[in-house]
Amino acid sequence: MAVIDYAILLTYLAAIVMIGVVVQRRAQEGIDSYFLGNRSLPWWALGASGMASNLDVSGTMINTAFIFALGASGFFIEIRGGVTLIMAFLMIFMGKWNRRAEVMTLAEWMHLRFGKAREGDIARLIAAITQIIMTIAMVTYFAIGAGKFVGEFLGIPAWLGLSSEFWAATIMIALAMIYTVLSGLYGVVWTDVFQGILIFGTIIYICVMVVTRFALPDSFLISMPMKDGSFEAFETTRLAWTSIVPKWHLGIPEASAYSIYNLFGIAVIFYLFKTTIEGSGGTGNYMLQRFMAARSDRDTGLLSMFWIFLLSFRWPFIAAIAIMGISIGTGQHTVMDPEKVLPMVINQLVPTGIKGLLVAGLIAAAMSTFDSTVNAGAAYWVRDVYQAYINPRADKKSLMQHSRWSSIVIVVLGLFFTVFIRNINDIWGWITMSIGAGLIVPMLARWYWWRLNGYGFAAGTLFGMTAAIIQRLFFPMIPEYFSFLFAAGASLIGMTFGSFLTKPTDPAVLKEFYRRTRPFGLWNPVRDTLSTRLMERINAENRRDIIATFFAVPWQIVLFLFMMMLVMQRWDNLVWLAVALVGLSIGLYFFWFRHLSTEVRIEESDSLP
Prior knowledge:
Elements: H1 3-23, H2 31-36, H3 43-54, H4 57-70, H5 73-77, H6 86-101, H7 106-114, H8 118-154, H9 164-213, E1 219-225, E2 231-237, H10 238-241, H11 264-281, H12 286-292, H13 297-311, H14 314-332, H15 341-349, H16 354-390, H17 396-417, H18 424-435, H19 437-448, H20 454-474, H21 480-500, H22 507-517, H23 524-527, H24 532-568, H25 571-591
Antiparallel strand pairs: 1-2
Helix pairs in contact: 1-9, 1-16, 3-9, 3-12, 3-13, 3-16, 4-8, 4-14, 6-11, 6-13, 6-24, 7-8, 8-9, 8-15, 8-16, 8-17, 8-18, 8-20, 9-14, 9-16, 9-17, 11-19, 14-15, 14-24, 16-17, 18-21, 19-20, 19-21, 20-21, 24-25
């Protein structure tokens, strides 16, 4: 980069640290302030922060790799996690259910669902430990991608036997830790808003530049990684590369690392199935924290809709970078690592000055995802382990010290594991399709099945996590759907035996949980204890939410594809997607949006004697 690019980057880094320092006083009031912003943050700031947090560099690099190598078909692979389709479920019902619990973390939620006796304590501890493990894994994933990206520009040498990518990630993460540790969620959200503006500006610039200056030829070369670590070029056409109709079989050579996606039709159906289960079960990471911090049911819906809309701009940016990567390969006959298309494009095709803004914007994306993850992960140690079981009488000063130190420890452990993992898709596939699968069954059942107790949740989680670790150690190369089924199947077995071999949860606990959150599902023993008048209102809300979800899921997919087709300039696809988008939006308005202010109020008279 030129001097002006470095000046822009340094100015940006100084600005976000300054924002963290300015708002740190508001985070000193206690852990409610540090981790939830006292539930006083506006919905638009939470939504913008969520968008910035989803725009991580690692995800952008792997998504760009799939679009570069497979065209629009690569979008459907990332339904497994990169499309963030869980947002559709959070927008309609899962966000407000979580907010109604009025807790700080997923683990604390276990006391509301299973009570504060032994089964609730066991479920809470297991949930806290698994979420901390997931946080460390996510930090590792972010650090690998960030190291690959930042290392391309800073030219940091290898040192002490550790790669330049490791040290690049360490420098960036150390800077992000300053404001994360100082100011908690206040610093995370307001720096994310600032970073989101920067990200948005760079996205618009790159998309306009590609539409006006780059055009795909009728045929061109792309490249794919091979199983032996090399890369090989393959020819494709513009019509095939921009097609939004998924093929049943891709025909990728078996020697390619991407050949695991050859049964494409089955893979896409499976990813949709997985996302539906995951979305219906909720999430436990930084995404959930935004909803826990929301002011009302209405705010959870509005922040979700704004989040999805802003996130839709990620996909035309990814497509634009992929098109520029194709231009490099066509002009220079370069066979490149698809995961390094993003930094190569910035280095070779983005002009001075704009390059500094773009690098700063993408580093902002990396930092915003990282800071959100660490802040949410630290809450599990402070709230659910230290305060709940080690030192229940801890004062504010002690809790704040643990908030900061736990953040630092999580980051150090995440960086440590980057030494053993080099491939972004490798760690991302394991997180989404194996270790995530080990949690997905009990996470789903906790909302919809009254008979699940704390012991069943704990057993299902332990069985699933153990299966995911076994798969990673002994069967690392099996297809993703097999690893998902292995971990999820083990989790289902553990959950079923754990629940039926122990007593049901106290009916009084179940009733209080249902009255507060009001989910749909198998709750007849609890529903029978409530008044007919109350159940009529709850049933009406549940029916609307179920119907609205059938509009929301395809609405999000169509919106993202529509935005991507703008850059790919496939106007025929754009027309059909526009028609579908309008129809789905009308359905969402009638079954969801106009009911946002309608919240079922629970009164004591609604309970039967």
